[in-house]
TrEMBL record:
FANCI helical domain mapped to chain residues: 284-370, 555-630, 631-747
Protein's organism: Sarcophilus harrisii (Tasmanian devil)
Superkingdom field: Eukaryota
GO molecular function: DNA polymerase binding
Protein name: FA complementation group I
Basic and acidic residues compositional bias, start-end: 1277-1288
Length: 1295
């Protein structure tokens, strides 16, 4: 039978074949097909024969074909056939599908849909046919029955796809079904429907099935819907990461069901590779990715920026076309994230509105951690990002040579945080990836060497951290480090010191590196440049400190300086003590050659000797003998001698104390001679020349500083060894008198000559440790045995003021540079201990003897001791928060003198800070209760500044902060002092506390009313009621002090509102994509309400200010700028509601009220204020014009000021007009007439005066008439004869 079909099929005509097939029953035909297919007897030929004998033009043939198709689909799906046979059958069915009638195609397609819906697919092989059937169906133009109606082929195909995507897909066939849609021609709407269906199925698949499905999705995205595909993939993995992290942080039992972390990261890595590969083939996909992530920045960045999307971006950065875009996007995202966090951190109003989201820095560091799972494609991007952040946001050099950031100060600004993030990325990447380590070290060293003129402290810190982590690993980079040593002679001194401190651990484990460094330093010792020689000294001293000799004091006996403690390798495991000793003595021998060089080089050497002694005590004899030869530098000698007496001498034999006795005798002799000498002996009396313009004056200045230094060194030495001896203290006082006489002469000469020494404090040679001990002895030592000797020093008020002044100088130096002069000047632990001691003394002195009591006694020149103590306290509180944030609790604990021995550990920082705050509050209240004549404005300002510093230590959510805010509000309401600086300080404190508790807009409104009441109205005939909310606002403080403070704070509130509106716009763009739409709507409504209420209250505040007769100057300028800003933000809000109207509906009533308020209470007053500003400026110009003959410069200055102050007026008018323009658009969209509240004004940046215009027009008409008459006369005269021309000329002359 089958042979007959095959033989008939070979004939030219198909008539006999048709007749034969009609005779066969359906079962016989299917049996033949099954027999051939199962046995593999080339069923293709049989199928061709059947199709040839079943033409679609005949109904019987068409039906036969349909039955064959159905049966063949079942055969292919059954799984009983060989792969080649199934493929052959499927191929033939595909070829013949387009010839099937529409009804047959519909039936076949419905069959497929039913199979998928019922989940009865066996192997999915037959699905290859479905795209051809759907494509063929779409080409049918005739109407096909569907339900009770009819649809054409294209519509039917759309309906089938809709039904298919609405059905439940069996998990194992999801990939095949997705692949199938690639071959189906889809409209945009159909494609989106398919993509949404597949994205919903991602969460239902096993992890290992997701990469192939994503691959199919990416192929499908070539048809369109690229953004939706990328968005869905990113959102899915963002949610996966979030769930995974929550489970890891949750209960231990959950770990049993958690997806293994490694498996998830491997899947993510594979998918990132798929996407990057797809972007390489389809640039549009890359563009859509960048567009999607950039759009996400405008709204809720956490929906688009997540660890997965960051890793994806870093991988895409390997494609050159997108590299720059990717890093620009990441840079702006990081900076925006830090700025948002800073804004949230400083505003309780925003914290209550916007939920805290995870910071982008946490996400990036998570990417670094995840990259350990074979994410090699991400690693290079991480390294580039790290260096880009450090290069872009590192410390910058500003005027004066200072840098914008000290390495010891914690990161505060967004730029500093971004730079710190870059360093953390590189350090963590270095720890995880061995392959990339060498490149990181090389790039860091390249920047240290090549960017030496710029601040590079951040790179040196990174290098130090890298070396600490793996000093042995970095031996592989020794050639690069050695190469960097060759540039030491050309680098600035601070760079050399930082670099050598960083590489110390490497020198301990690599002898070749150490030898290379010594060679370089020896060459630098005799270089032409002074800085190179100083670098050599610094390098040798650092080596002496760190290559210890066995037998030296332990680090517990002598605290190590920062940087030098960063050695974690035991040197004695590699080099014995004999080798180290020989090495150190060799270095000392090299350093002795410096003793004949310039003063700067010698000074550095002497200052370094003390630190070397403490770290390497076995070198004491060599160093002390060196100093004995060079005894003219007393400061170093006395520090080293004092340390030697305390630490080494008890352990040494007496026979080795000869040099010590010699040094002590020498210092004693110098002390006696200095006391007996007069200033004339040094040729430094009052008649001496101290001018900086002459060589004699410069020499005398240098001598004077040397004599002052010697006096200070001897004061410290004699006090230290005196052991509270009355005679020694008398010598100390005599030395101080010598110091004081010379110091007074220098001040007097500097004041007269206006030399460079004006306002330049002479550097004190006293050590911070001694200053601390001296203050304790002067003010806090109550021992009976010391009373007699200390009374000698206490009898001199000048000496006590001097001691406090030096303490103040040391604190100021620490505040500005992060270190102090003298021993332990870079040891922050020792500095902190001394700082605590000094603070306790200053605090006790100020609280025990207030300024008022001191001033009522003896009147003296300069500041009182109490005021100096208060200034010192102000600086210390600021410095401790800047340099010792982790030790705040320890610092406050040290200040609590009352219960020093009975401290409870559970007392927190807020409680301790509150105790100190109350002391200063009492002092301020007592000061304010004084008579006006006794009021000290400087002291009051210092107290307010201290209260501001201490208030930063309070927990924002604590009741203590609310109490302090209430106290500050009370002070502002009850005190009416006319001191502008005190008022400014108190207002700053008020606002800084207020923003931590709630929004200050109500306070701004009250203050604006007070300012209006005090300064009066623009219209002088109107008498303004004085509300007196705050007594602090009076005629002298209202403008400019309080007014500028109010406007500055209003500007900050406007920034917050602007930020909220931007966030609202972002939510609006993402609202339809969110699964939590109801929550989004609720959050949006809350944000809208808050923004409108803030703007409404600010409008009332500006309503008062804009009617106030403000004096010309900064207040007017600032108010005009703020008005422009509020109109710009109102315009932004109107634009937001335009978008809302396009998507959902109308505007809320509160927005309508805000527009009404702006139209009635602000815009008309703005135009009146502009006229007022122009009038007062015209008056100032006319006044200046009257004095023009006297002073031309006065006119020029007045005109320049007027030009500067009128500049904001056109900007304000433009902002108002833009606001009104978009209000018109919003009125049309919302069907609400918002313009009924706005009254258009004729006042613009140019104005037409009607009277002047009429006069000008009349003059123009008169001129035209005269000209016309003249022309007529000339024309008549020209018509006369030539003889009569002469008289005509005469007549014209008469005219």
């Amino acid at each position: 039978m089958d042979q007959k079909i095959l033989s008939l099929a070979t004939e030219k005509t198909a008539e006999k074949l048709q007749e034969f097939l009609q005779c066969l029953k359906d079962d016989e035909l299917t049996g033949l097909l099954q027999k051939h297919a199962v046995k593999g007897k080339s069923p293709g030929a049989l199928l061709k024969g059947i199709f040839k004998g079943s033409p679609c033009s005949e109904e019987a043939g068409s039906l036969r074909r349909l039955k064959v198709y159905k049966y063949c689909i079942q055969l292919v799906e059954s799984g009983d056939l060989h792969r080649e046979v199934a493929s052959e059958i499927t191929g033939l069915l595909m070829l013949e599908a387009h010839s099937l009638p529409g009804s047959s195609l519909v039936e076949l397609a419905n069959g497929f849909v039913d199979v998928v819906r019922e989940g009865s697919l066996v192997n999915g092989k037959s699905l290859e046919l479905l795209p051809i059937i759907l494509t063929a169906l779409a080409t049918k133009k005739e109407n096909l029955a569907y339900g009770k109606g009819e649809l054409n082929g294209e519509e039917y195909k759309k309906q089938l796809i809709n039904t298919l995507c609405s059905s439940r897909w069996d998990q194992q066939f999801v990939i095949q079904l997705t692949s199938m849609f690639r071959d189906v021609p889809l409209s945009i709407e159909e494609l989106e429907f398919v993509v949404e269906k597949v994205l919903r199925l991602l969460s239902k698949l096993d992890l290992q099935e997701i990469p192939p499905l994503v691959y199919q999705l990416l192929l499908l995205s070539s048809k369109g819907s690229r953004t939706k595909v990328l968005e869905g993939i990113i959102a899915f993995f963002s949610q996966m990461d979030k769930s995974h992290n929550e489970e890891q942080c949750g209960d231990d039992l959950l770990d049993l069901v958690t997806v293994p972390s490694g498996e998830l990261r491997h899947v993510e890595g594979t998918i990132i590779l798929h996407i990057v590969f797809a972007i390489k083939l389809d640039r549009d996909l890359g563009r859509e990715l960048m567009k999607h992530l950039k759009a996400g920045q405008q709204g809720d960045a956490n929906k688009t920026i997540c660890p997965f999307s960051i890793a994806l971006l870093l991988s895409v950065a390997r494609i050159q076309r997108f590299e720059e875009q990717v890093f620009d996007l990441l840079k702006t995202s990081i900076l925006k994230s830090f700025r948002d966090l800073q804004l949230l951190h400083t505003s309780k109003f925003l914290q209550n509105l916007v939920p805290q989201k995870s910071c982008i820095s946490t996400m990036i560091l998570e990417v670094v951690k995840n990259s350990v799972h074979s994410w090699d494609h991400v690693t290079q991007g991480l390294v580039e990002l790290g260096f880009i952040l450090m290069d872009s946001y590192g410390p910058k050099k500003i005027l004066g040579g200072k840098t914008t950031e000290a390495s010891l100060v914690p990161s505060k600004t967004p730029s500093q945080q971004a730079c710190r993030l870059g360093a953390n990325i590189l350090l963590e990447t270095f720890k995880i990836h061995e392959m990339i380590r060498k490149e990181i070290v090389e790039q860091v060293l390249n920047r240290v060497v090549s960017k030496a003129s710029s601040p590079i402290s951040h790179f040196l810190d990174l290098l130090s951290n890298i070396i600490i982590y793996a000093p042995l690993v970095l031996q592989s980079c020794s050639s690069k480090v050695t190469e960097a040593f060759d540039y030491l002679s050309f680098l600035p001194l601070h760079t050399v010191q930082g670099l050598l401190k960083a590489v110390q651990p490497l020198l301990k484990v690599s002898m070749s590196m150490r030898d290379s460094l010594i060679l370089v330093l020896r060459k630098a010792m005799f270089a032409n440049h002074l800085d190179a020689r100083k670098s050599a000294v610094a390098g040798f001293l650092l080596l002496l400190k760190n290559f210890k000799i066995l037998g030296s004091l332990s680090s517990s006996q002598c605290s190590q300086s920062i940087g030098a403690t960063q050695v974690q390798v035991d040197v004695h495991s590699r080099y014995n003590s004999v080798a180290n000793e020989a090495f150190c003595l060799e270095i000392l021998d090299s350093l002795r050659r410096c003793l004949g060089q310039q003063a700067d080089v010698r000074l550095m050497l002497y200052e370094g000797f003390y630190d070397v002694l403490r770290r390497n005590s076995q070198l004491a004899n060599s160093i002390m003998h060196t100093l004995l030869i060079q005894a003219h530098l007393l400061c170093c000698i006395q520090h080293c001698l004092a340390w030697y007496r305390n630490k080494v001498m008890p352990e040494e034999e007496e026979e080795e104390e000869g040099f010590q006795q010699d040094l002590e005798d020498m210092l004693e002799s110098i002390t006696i001679r200095m006391i007996k000498s007069e200033l004339e002996d040094f040729e430094l009396d009052k008649s001496a020349d101290f001018s900086q313009a002459t060589s004699v004056g410069i020499k005398n200045n240098i001598y004077a500083l040397l004599v002052i230094g010697v006096c200070e060194v001897l004061i410290e030495y004699n006090f230290t060894i005196g052991n509270f001896s009355k005679n020694k203290f008398e010598e100390v006082l005599s030395l101080f008198k010598c110091y004081n006489r010379l110091s007074d002469i220098l001040k007097e000469k500097a004041g007269k000559g206006k030399s460079t020494m004006v306002n330049k404090t002479v550097r004190s040679f006293l050590s911070m440790k001694f200053v601390s001990a001296l203050l304790v002895a002067l003010f806090r030592d109550s021992s009976q045995s010391h009373e007699e000797s200390l009374s000698v020093l206490r009898s001199s008020n000048e000496f006590m003021r001097y001691a406090v002044n030096v303490a103040l100088q040391k604190v100021q130096q620490l505040e500005e540079t992060g270190q102090v002069d003298g021993p332990d000047g870079q040891n922050l632990d020792r500095i902190f201990q001394n700082l605590c001691e000094i603070t306790r003394v200053l605090l006790w002195r100020y609280t025990s003897i207030p300024t008022s009591v001191e001033e009522s006694g003896k009147k003296e020149k300069g500041k009182t001791i109490s005021l100096l103590c208060l200034e010192g306290l102000q600086r210390i509180f600021h410095t401790v928060q800047q340099f010792f944030p982790s030790k705040i609790h320890q610092f406050l604990r040290a200040l609590d003198i009352t219960n020093e021995d009975e401290e409870e550990e559970d007392v927190n920082i807020t409680q301790r800070a509150t105790f100190q705050i109350r002391q200063f509050q009492r002092s301020l209240v007592n000061l304010l209760s004084c008579q006006d004549d006794d009021f000290n404005g400087k002291e009051a300002l210092l107290l307010v500044t201290i209260l501001s510093s201490l208030s930063k230590l309070l927990d924002p959510s604590s009741p203590q902060l609310m109490q302090m805010l209430s106290w500050t509000v009370k002070m502002c309401k009850e005190n009416s002092l006319e001191d502008a600086s005190f008022c400014k300080g108190l207002m700053n404190l008020l606002f800084s506390l207020h923003v931590l508790c709630k929004s200050p807009v109500s306070v701004l409104r009250d203050l604006s009313q007070d300012i209006h009441g005090q300064l009066g109205d623009l219209d002088q005939d109107i008498e303004v009621e004085k509300p007196n909310h705050f007594a602090m606002v009076n005629l002298k403080t209202a403008a400019p002090t309080v007014c500028l403070q109010v406007l500055s704070q209003a500007e900050k509130v406007l920034e917050e509102v602007d930020w909220l509106i931007t966030k609202l716009k972002g939510h609006l763009g993402q609202e339809t994509l969110s699964e939590e739409a109801s929550q989004e709507v609720s959050l949006n409504q809350t944000l809208e309400k808050a923004a409108i209420l803030q703007l409404g209250t600010l409008l009332t505040a500006f309503h008062e200010l804009v009617q106030t007769a403000l004096p010309s100057g900064s207040c007017v300028d600032s108010l005009l700028r703020n008005l422009s800003k509020i109109y710009t933000i109102l315009t932004a809000l109107v634009k937001y509601y335009l978008q809302v109207c396009r998507t959902s509906g109308g505007i809320p009533n509160r927005m309508e009220k805000l527009v009404k308020l702006s139209g009635s209470h602000l815009t008309p007053q703005c135009y009146a204020f502009i006229s007022y500003v122009q009038n007062i400026q015209n008056e100032s110009l006319s006044v200046a014009g009257e004095k023009k003959k006297e002073k031309t410069a006065a006119v020029t200055t007045a005109m320049a000021r007027v030009l500067r102050e009128t500049k904001p007026i056109p900007n304000l008018i433009f902002a108002i007009e833009q606001y009104e323009k978009f209000l018109i658009h919003l009125s049309k969209k919302s069907k609400v007439n918002l313009m009924q509240y706005m009254k258009l004004s004729t006042s613009r940046d140019f104005r037409i005066n009607g009277d002047i215009l009429d006069t000008a027009l009349q003059e123009q008409e008169t001129d035209e008439e005269n000209e016309r008459m003249t022309d007529q006369t000339v024309a008549s005269e020209q018509r006369k004869d030539d003889d009569s021309q002469e008289p005509a000329k005469k007549k014209r002359k008469k005219k």
